[in-house]
Each structure stands twice: as C-alpha cells, then as structure tokens.
Records
---
Amino acid sequence: MLSTVEFEIMGKHPPLVSNIARGPIIDTAALVTALHNGNVKAAALDVTDPEPLNEDSELWDMPNVVITPHISGGSTDYTKRAFAVLEANLYRIENWEKGFINEISRHKGY
C-alpha cells in the first residue's frame, strides 16, 4: 500500500508514517529511501517486513525511527473495541445491511 510513488506524493508535506497493521503494507526499502530523502519525516513501526526485522536493517539506527516489538494491540481496551466491531458487523449481516464498518476499500484509499 505504501511504496515509492506514495512516499513521493506524501513528500510535499513529509508525514510521520506509522504501521501497526501488517509489515508488508509498507515497502521497507522504499521507506528507508523516503526517510533518507525527506519524503517521510519519521516512522513508528510496530510491525515490519520482514518480521522480525533483520539485525542489519538501517531502520534500527535511524534517529527518526521508533520500532516496537509488535505490541500495539495490547492495550487494555483492545478486546472491548474488537468485540464492539464484531457485534456491529454481525448486526449488519443479520439485518442484510451492506458493508462492514471496518471494511477495506482500495477505491477509497484505506
């Protein structure tokens, strides 16, 4: 989902990129390049590709990168939020409503 083209577009207003979903969502090599050339200001990564991240990855030593050990889902409210989403989606199925509340749409960009 995020690679060279997307990082170049974002470079007009360099963002903080955060990934708490799945490592392959971000092209790691493209992210490193974008961090070096300023298209991305900083990165916060709870997941990486590969995972675990190679010991020799440049990301470990970059001052504008924070890497956590895949723990972002461990909040005290995670289970409550996950079941609320499940409950809402089951309600939608039961009532023949279209689409889930957390459905991915590449057309919409998320």
---
Amino acid sequence: MQPAPFDKPRLELIDIARGLALVAMAIYHFGWDLEFFGYMGAGTTAHGGWRLFARCIASSFLFLVGVGLFLGHGRGIRWPSFRRRLVMIAAAAAAISVVTWFAVPGGFIFFGILHQIALASVLGLLFLRVPAWLTIIIAVFVITAPNYVRSPFFDHPVWWWVGLSSTNPHANDYVPLFPWFGAVLLGIAAARIAAGAGLFDRIAALRTGKWGRPLIFFGRHSLAFYLIHQPVLIACVWLIAQVWPAPAQSPQANFMQACNRQCSEAQDSAFCTRYCVCALETVEEQGLLGEIFVANPSEETRTRMNDISLYCTNIVSFPPAPETGNE
C-alpha cells in the first residue's frame, strides 16, 4: 500500500528542522564574511571544522528536500504547485549565477545549492514510488561515485554540473549532482519509511509553542531567507568594518596561516612547518604572493601553485642528501 503524504496540517517539526538549517547556514556565511573582511584568517571557512559544518548544512538541506518532495507528491504529483515551486527556485538560481558572474567572474556560482535543489526536485520524482531499500542503495552509489568514477571525460565545462570531473572546478558554491543528490534520495527513502511506520501521523499533531515560531517562519519562507540573508550579513560586517577595521596582516602571515591550516588536515605539524616555509619561499621567488589572495586567481596561477605544492612536498618528504667533499 502506498503511504499517504501529509498535506494538512503542515508538519511543524519539518519546518523547524528547515529553519535550523537556515540559521546554521547564516552562521557559516557570517564566518565567511568575517574572513572576507579580514577578521578571520584566510582559508578558515574552507578547512577543518568549518568545512565539515558547511557540508552538514548542505546535506541537511538536501535531505529535507527529499522529505518534502515525498510529503508533497508521494501519493500523486501535484503538477501546478510543483511547477510553481520549480520555476521560483530555477529563477532564483539563475539570478544568483548572473549576479556572481559580474561580481566574481572567475568563481561565479554556476551550480550551487539552488541549482542542485531544482535538478534534484525533478529527478526525485522518479523515486517517489521506488522501494525505500532500492532508493537507499542508489543513494549510496551516488554519494560514493566521486571516489571511483571520476573521469577526464567530465572535465569539459558542459559536464561540471555532474560532479565527476577529474578535479573540481573553481567556484564559490559548488553542489553538483554527484554526490549531493544522494542526500535527497536518502530524504525520500526516510520519508517513505516514516510514512509507512505511521511516524508522520504522530508528529502531525505536535505543536512547539512560541519558541518554535521564528524557526517555523524561516522554514516556511526558506527561499526568501536564502536570498536575503547574505546581502544583509555582508552589509552588517561592512558597517562594522567602517568603525572597527580588521587588523592588517602581512601577505606572508596570511599565506603561512592558510597553508598550515590546510596542510594540518593531512600531515603532522613538523611536516607542515617545513612544507609551508618552502611554499612561501617559492611563491615569493616566482612573484605569486600578490595573486594568491585575490578573489579569483587565474587558471595559470592555480596551475603554478599545484606545481609548487608538488615540488615542496617532494623536498620535505625526500630531502637531498648533504654534500660531502674530499679535502
């Protein structure tokens, strides 16, 4: 028997979960803004706990997209509401691409979270009647595929949205089909299981009271929140910067800080210290230091930085033997 989705009343817990994800996203973006204005070290939000935080936020959003898709269309696709929502999301995604094309042309958002939600909403319709166990298996494949299915065939920009190119393209927000569609599939499967177990029947009557109202409001207006919050946060940090400017830091200190932060994710501190010293010396010798921290470094700069990374890794890992001479 096909589990019935819930149209009325709305499930407050789902709205609250979506609202919490939005608040978490705003916190992450606030950290990014602080980094951009110099209040946090370069590369802070791209590594370590901040990077994990960002991935958890994106995963939760897409999981909830899958849950919402099943709740709204599990019994039958309501085409008018589906088309209206899809057009709104696709239009917002296109607007973000256009704005970032002019603002950051070298790293514009060509396939971010909204692009993924639009595509996943369409593809997800194919799985609304698929057994949960099979949907989970497919989700695991989608999530793990980038670890073993990458190919130079997908390196052409026309295929970047797939997420299987040999290296990820440079973009400020990149949420391709693989692996992120897997989170949507898990949401569909979880909702199907929950509906079959009667879980939605039990939580439909739950009311959270006054404390949950702000989160419910955010959750029910998630697209507007997404589009508005970042310009507001940037404006707030900009105003703060006019009164309390961030302390100036030399490019060398910024480089060492970012280098050590990234290196420490895979190597010990002794290795990272030697590696980053080598990298900084080589970068300065090649006159690249001024180009690294621009918003959109050129493809040539990124290639040269990759070469420097390989060179210093070899130097630190396999130091040359000391020269000996005969008197």
